[in-house]
Design goal:
23% strand; disordered C terminus; alpha/beta; 17 strands; 378 residues; Rossmann fold
Length: 378
């Protein structure tokens, strides 16, 4: 739901009633992951998607029904071999979808947080006692929370702690709370949707390849910074799509700026006086990705220099160099595409190999099995 928060926030401000359908669990080759959402207002306007088109019509009708009767439901959709005309997923996967009428509670605050870029997590019960289905908490980074799941205060505290852990990692997905933790006589499943600021991509080296990489980074949803020590190259005119342009020695800027486990660092300078001190620092930071541009000869020389300044073999193993996947890229745009592809593969656990003829999963997020229990609540 937080993926379409900006438009939903406008609906709230306009006083429009709406229902939201959210993917809560997937199995097989499902097209969308948990958290994907479709919303329908009382006038029939729809935004978002839960399946890329396979079951949108049926889910749309479920949202219209939820607006009429005020009931929260979980429905399962999968492929049917017996009936070619049945509503289902042509990809052969299975998805469970939570459909909830949105009428106050913590939802307006959650949508406002997502719209403004404030970190927060929305935790909703998607499997458990029927009278608790769809109940929600809004959890903040400091562990405080709004809303009530019902049943027992201990449940709210346990759910808030689980949601905060997901928020700290910037993850959206489901978590299980055992019977003891739920205090309601049976286990619960929560869908936790994390709203966090965009992850950072820092591009070092204001070259023409960097300009193309900025565009790819923005397309992938990153907050992109370009850093170069040369003011004549690090300009807004050359990088109009960058969120931030910094004129500074790369290693000094890296030491002074904030990074986290989602940050990607792309070193395009391929100049030892910049690369060595920068990579010496970068390879010791808890970031998601460190890649460096250069020929294989440059790579070998750079590794030698890094070893000489004390970089360990374990640290060097983190370095993606030469940067990018082997696409045969030549132009800046093609090279940026290969770098973006490697970043996605690194994030999702993909191999980078062609899918044609392969027998590996298409999606590498380790999806959970669909929920075992389907229920509804007034």
């Amino acid at each position: 739901m937080l993926d379409i928060a900006e438009e939903l926030h406008r609906w709230v401000e306009q006083g429009r009633e709406f229902a939201v359908a959210t993917v809560v669990a997937v199995g097989g080759s499902a097209p969308r992951q948990p958290g994907a959402a479709l919303a329908v207002d009382s006038d029939g306007t729809a935004i978002g998607s839960v399946s890329g088109g396979c079951v949108e019509g049926a889910v749309y009708e479920l949202c219209r029904q939820a607006l009429e009767d005020g009931r929260t439901v979980v429905e399962r959709f999968g492929y049917s071999d017996e009936d070619a005309f049945a509503v289902g997923l042509t990809c052969g996967g299975i998805i469970d979808i939570l459909v909830t009428p949105v009428r106050g509670g913590v939802y307006p605050a959650a949508l406002a947080a997502a719209t403004t870029g404030e970190a927060a997590a929305l935790a909703r019960i998607v499997d458990g006692p029927e009278d608790l289905m769809g109940r929600a908490l809004l959890v903040h980074p400091d562990g405080s929370y709004e809303g009530l799941l019902g049943g027992h205060p201990e449940l709210d505290r346990t759910a808030a702690a689980e949601a905060r852990a997901m928020l700290d990692a910037g993850r959206t997905g489901t978590v299980e709370i055992g019977e003891d933790g739920s205090r309601c006589g049976q286990p619960l499943t929560l869908l936790v949707e994390s709203s966090v600021p965009a992850p950072r991509m820092i591009v070092f080296g204001a070259i023409d390849f960097a300009s193309a990489l900025v565009r790819v980074g923005k397309f992938l949803g990153y907050h992109v910074t370009v850093c170069d020590a040369r003011p004549v190259f690090a300009t807004e005119l050359r990088f109009p799509e960058a969120d931030e342009i910094v004129v500074a020695w790369p290693h000094r800027y890296l030491a002074s700026t904030e990074v986290d486990a989602r940050t990607v660092l792309c070193v395009l300078t391929h100049d030892a006086k910049f690369d060595v001190p920068l990579l010496q620092a970068a390879l010791r930071l808890p970031v998601a990705y460190v890649g460096a541009m250069g020929s294989r000869r440059t790579h070998e020389d750079r590794n030698k220099r890094l070893r000489e300044v004390g970089v360990t073999e374990l640290e060097l193993a983190r370095l993606r160099s030469p940067i990018g996947l082997d696409l045969g890229a030549r132009t800046p745009e093609e090279t940026a595409l290969s770098i973006g592809a490697e970043i996605v593969a690194n994030r999702r656990g993909g191999s980078g190999a062609a899918l044609t003829g392969a027998h590996t999963p298409i999606h590498h997020d380790g999806p959970r099995e669909p929920l075992g229990r389907i229920g509804s609540v007034a």
